[in-house]
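Today's session is about reading a structure prediction critically. Students often jump straight to the picture, but the first step is always the sequence itself: look for stretches that repeat, for charged clusters, for runs of hydrophobic residues. Only then move on to the predicted structure, which in these notes is written as discrete structure tokens rather than atom positions. Here is the chain we will use throughout the hour.
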Amino acid sequence: MLQPGDPAPAFALACEDGAVIDSATLAGRPDVLYLYPKDSTPGCTQETCDFRDRTDQIRAAGAEVFGVSRDTVGSHARFHAKQGLNFHLLSDPDRALHLAYGCWGKKVMYGKEIEGTIRSTFLIGADGRVAAAWPKVRVAGHAEAVLAAVLAVSAR
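Below is the predicted structure for this chain, in token form.
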């Protein structure tokens, strides 16, 4: 998994409206990338809504939020509309970003070991390096912790 100080791998992924968002166009400002397992599941919905509710504060600090999962653009479009999201959801169906960021691997779910998305978040600094990383995220209170980190980075 990427660590603070590592260069953030480049990406180009389609979002919920079909437009392609690439890391080159995001350069020069901080960005939050949170990787989650699946649209419309309880934990992922809670995490996404927590970020939705803090996006205005994150933007006021000069950063942008992006959710990333393996779900399709169509699934993202439905999830985006249903939850009234104010940021983009990126589709990574071939796991390229998941693998580059180290967020795909073995995990235990309901007592069984499976391979899948490891819920993680990265704050990418304006310099294109990882400013903060949260591996194996617990949803409760997570968006608050990310907001605090964004505010700290923007204060530098």
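Discussion point for the tutorial: The chain has a mean pLDDT of 95.
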